Amino acid sequence: QVAHPHCRENDWWNLCQWRLSFSRAETVLLNTWSPVQQLVYHMLRVFRTSIQVGNDKSVIKRYHIKTLMMWMCESLSPEWWNSHCVVNICTQLLHEFAERLKSTRFAMYFVPECNLNDSIERSDTFQSSIETLFNVTDESISVWFVDVYIRKFVSQFPLGSSLLNDIRTSRDL
Fold it and tell me: What residue ranges in 5-152 does DSSP mark as E strands?
C-alpha cells in the first residue's frame, strides 16, 4: 500500500491507493541479462548513491536505474553491449539517464503510459543531480570504479588493498 506522492496528504487516498508490483517479472528479465549487463546494472546502482546531493536521498531511486536498464537492454543489441567496455557503457547510460530525467517523460517499463517523472520534485537538488550525470566521463567513472567500487571489495581480503595501488586512470585500469 503506497499512495502517489501528491495524494499522501488526503487520508482516504493515502489509505486506499496501492502500487502495482512487477517484481517477479523484473526478476525473470534480470535473470536473462548477460554478465556485462548485470555488472553494469550493479555498478549503476552503487554509483547512484554517490550522485545524491547533500542529505537528499529521494532524488534518484533504485527503480529509476532498473527501469533505465530494462529499456536499454531491450533497445540495444547484444553486439552493442559486447562492443564497449563496461566503463564506457556506464558513461553512456548515465547520460541517457540524465536525458530521461531532464525530459518531461520517463516511461515505466511495464506500464509505459505511467510517467516516472510525474512524482519527481524538480528541486535544485534534482537539477544538480542531473548536471552531475551529464558531467560523468569515462575517466571519472574509471576513477570512481577503482576508488569506490573495486577497492571496497578487495579491501575485504588480506593484501587486497595493495593490489590496486598503481591504478589511477582509465588507461591503467
Answer: none
Q: Supply 75's cell numbers.
A: 533497445
pLDDT at 52 over 80: no
Phi-psi region of 159 (alpha: psi -120 to 50; beta: other; left: phi over 0): left
Cα–Cα distance, 51 to 131 (Å, whole number): 10
The HSE-up count of residue 34 (CA atoms within 13 Å, CB side) is: 14
pTM for this predicted structure: 0.79
Which residues share a beta bridge with 165?
none
**H or E element: which one contains 30?**
helix 23-30
The model's pLDDT over 116-140, given as tens digits with 9 standing for 90+, comes to: 888 777 777 778 888 888 999 999 8
